[in-house]
Design a protein that fits this description.
Helix content: 25-40%
Order of helices and strands: HHEEEEEH
Number of helices: 3
Number of strands: 5
InterPro entries: Hist_DNA-bd, Histone-like_DNA-bd_CS, IHF-like_DNA-bd_dom_sf
Number of domains: 2
CATH superfamily of the largest domain: IHF-like DNA-binding proteins
GO molecular function, one term: DNA binding
Pfam families: Bac_DNA_binding (PF00216)
Organism: Sphingobium quisquiliarum P25
Strand content: 25-35%
CATH class of the largest domain: Few Secondary Structures
CATH topology of the largest domain: HU Protein, Chain A
Protein name: Transcriptional regulator
Largest sheet: 3 strands, antiparallel
Distance between the termini: 37 Å
Structural class: alpha+beta
Length: 101
């Protein structure tokens, strides 16, 4: 699903909201996630998963065309860890809430 499909689906499921309103809501949602991650925070959506960042060390990479070595600086990258409910649904265990033996 792409952003425009998400907006269209939300607009169809919420006929009392106009398309521009739904688009603003989606934009605000993503902006808040990015803002929180950029400030070093974490975003957790219960039943869905958690967004965090991870540090990547500086390294030497290679240009795929020339094979030339190029320096790659250290950086922070986004990371998503799916929640338990999502993992269970993806693995065909929907509705399974039985305790582990």
């Amino acid at each position: 699903m792409i952003r425009s499909e998400l907006i269209q689906t939300l607009a169809e499921e919420n006929p009392d909201l106009g398309l521009p309103e739904v688009e603003r809501i989606v934009d605000l949602f993503f902006k808040e996630i990015v803002d929180r991650l950029s400030s070093g925070g974490r975003v957790e959506l219960r039943g869905f998963g958690a967004f965090t960042t991870r540090a990547r060390d500086a390294r030497t990479g290679r240009n795929p065309r020339t094979g030339e070595q190029v320096p790659v600086s250290a950086k922070r990258v986004p990371y998503f860890k799916p929640g338990k409910e999502m993992r269970e649904r993806l693995n065909g265990k929907a509705g399974s809430s039985s305790p582990r033996p």
